[in-house]
Amino acid sequence: MADSISSYDINTPLCSPGRVSDDIGSVGGNSKLPRFYDPDATLEVKPEIAHGFLVLLTNGAIATRKKKSKKTKFMESDSAFGESLLQLLEDEEQISLAFLALTDGNIVDACFGIQKHVQGRPKNQPSPAENEARSCKEALRDAADMSDIVRFRAIEAYRDCFRVVIEYNEILRSLGMASWCLKHCSVRTEATERLEEAFKILEEAVTMAS
Fold this sequence. Notes:
The chain has helices spanning about 20-25, 40-45, 45-55, 80-90, 90-105, 105-110, 115, 130-145, 150-175, 175-210. The protein is mainly α.
């Protein structure tokens, strides 16, 4: 048997599926705010799709990842990617396009697993995931109308989110069968923690603007 795991094994829920999602009842402890993502659904986004979303959110810039976390192999934020984001935020048109991709595109939808949930569901009967995604987009629009910083934080948060998704999949694919059994849960836990970190500043910005 080859010492590797196939692609369909990557999303096999071995670490208490749904537990993280159930623990997050509201964003930042504020029950008035919707969630900006579902951690389980987000980690199931295919890496090639996450890469495409990164292109939309960074004006085509892709990270040159060099630094690694001591815990596993998750990459720390690097200066090259930070500089690309600063360049993006200096262009009002690019900011508007990137933010529009969040509020009117399917990026937020993917973070709630909508494609997975709506199969076979009548169009006039939205799924819980669709309702959450719609609430998220409305919250972002409303907060951005009150404060321009929300647009910056939203772009930054979802950018970092999809970097985590890509790196999470890269790590899992690098594990052999024995390593998979021993390390999968810890890798998923760290990925979930990185997602929380990515959205923390956005949560604070939306809360302040609300």
